[in-house]
Amino acid sequence: MSRLLWLGIVLCLLACEEKPLDLELPFEGPRIKVDGVLWEGRQAEVYLSRTTPPLDVTADNFFLDGAHAFLFLADGSLVDSLQFQGRRRQSSRYVSAGGYLPSRQEQYYLEISAPGMPSARSEALAWPAAAALDSAALIWDKAGDRVTEIFARFSDDPASDNYYQLVISAHYRTPLDTVLDVGSFIISNEDDFREGRVIFNRALSLSLKRSITIGEEELELKEPEYLLLSLLSYGPGSESYFETIEGLDEEIGGFFPGNPFAPTNFDGGYGFLHTAAVDTVLFR
Known about the structure:
Strand content: 35-45%
Number of domains: 2
Structural class: mainly beta
């Protein structure tokens, strides 16, 4: 009897009709997503992408190549436009077309439009106080082509909420004065340094890339003319933004369209436009 009972249960299960799961996940439609930093004294550069429907992780769907981006003063005066310059990191790269250099004496906002989605406009951006690089040193390996440690001492207001980044770049004398960023580090003002001292035990190779293609011409890169160590102090809201996105998995892309859990300073879109005051030390 027990065998017949179990057989009946199995037959009933096999007879059940399979139905696909039809679950409508909410999607507000594509929105512009912005990731960029306005450096003091450096031409504007931002990365643009679009939000995608939930579970859509198709790489090509993230790019936003046909956008129009403009930089304004807080009073509405247009100071620069940004042009598409290729793709990088699942985003479309836009750089200054007019060569304008942002100044801490002014406040700016960025406005972006693209077909098929609402325009996005940032808040008028405040600038942080600049932290001063008091001293810095690079420690090289015996061969002289790898930086094995960076030593930096800098001063800042202990009461400030600044967020910091160290960037080392190699500058080459070429027809277009090529600059290659060879290392970048984000540091907070709590755990990663004590008493203004920062030491990174991470090797930076300056010999990995020996040539660069500009147009159809390939230029041979020899020893850089100089290295530049830059200390960036980020403006209000940046620390909260960086700490939030570190906990989000970028690989799942559109499952959380536009990272709505992260802070944003854009109306009509997502993402964050940061401001950064800069101090530099040059090594020849």
